[in-house]
């Protein structure tokens, strides 16, 4: 199996069987996101401890396979990370999708790196980048207590 097939398999698996798709128990922050162009909607639930560590994270929503897969991958990747590390992961993820750069994050395991890289092909489809980044932007809104809904068109 070549790397493109592996990436496609990972995205399809996360799209069909999203991880952490529920409302996590004891969440203390949340935010909603919406992509009006394709109808993706996501609601991110976050449980941060007093030291801003992501104790738990989950999401509810509906949308295209890329949007749901990305939300699933996000929750698996940043759960258990300090907020500053999670924010750095987000920055690298956005750079990967916008500029095609490789991920260079020491705090990720090889499996986590491969899973995140599975979304790198989205760069070739600019309209789909918004689908892939919606949950990530919504996570930041939740963590930073921003009350407005994330909207990919604003």
What is this structure's SSE topology?
Blueprint: H1 3-16, E1 29-35, E2 40-48, E3 54-62, H2 65-78, H3 83-99, H4 110-117, H5 126-143, E4 150-151
Parallel strand pairs: 1-4
Antiparallel strand pairs: 1-2, 2-3
Helix pairs in contact: 1-2, 2-5, 3-5
Shape: globular
CATH domain class? Alpha Beta
How far is the N terminus from the C terminus? 40 Å
Strand coverage percent: 15-25%
| CATH architecture classification name | Alpha-Beta Complex
Low-confidence stretches: none
Question: Care to describe what's here?
Answer:
α1 packs across α2 (65-78) and α3 packs antiparallel against α5. The protein has helices at residues 3-16, 65-78, 83-99, 110-117, 126-143; strands at 29-35, 40-48, 54-62, 150-151. 46% of the residues lie in helices and 18% in strands. It contains five helices and four strands; from the N terminus they run αβββααααβ. β2 (40-48) and β3 (54-62) form a beta hairpin. It has one domain (3-144): Sufe protein. Chain: A, CATH 3.90.1010.10. The relative contact order is 0.21. The protein has 154 residues and is an alpha+beta fold. The N and C termini lie far apart (40 Å). It is globular, with a radius of gyration of 14 Å. The mean pLDDT is 93. The protein has a four-stranded mixed beta sheet, covered by helices on one side.
């Amino acid at each position: 199996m070549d790397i493109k097939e592996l990436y496609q398999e990972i995205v399809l698996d996360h799209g069909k069987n999203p991880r952490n798709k529920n409302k996590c128990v004891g969440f203390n922050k949340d935010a909603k996101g919406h992509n009006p162009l394709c109808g993706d909607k996501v609601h991110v639930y976050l449980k941060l401890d007093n030291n801003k560590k992501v104790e738990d994270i989950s999401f509810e929503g509906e949308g295209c396979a890329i949007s749901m897969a990305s939300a699933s991958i996000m929750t698996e990747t940043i759960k258990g990370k300090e907020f500053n590390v999670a924010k750095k992961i987000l920055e690298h993820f956005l750079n990967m999708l916008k500029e095609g750069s490789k991920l260079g994050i020491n705090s990720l395991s090889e499996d986590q790196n491969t899973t995140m890289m599975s979304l790198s092909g989205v760069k070739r489809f600019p309209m789909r980048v918004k689908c892939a980044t919606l949950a990530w932007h919504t996570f930041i809104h939740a963590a930073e207590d921003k009350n407005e809904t994330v909207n990919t068109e604003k």
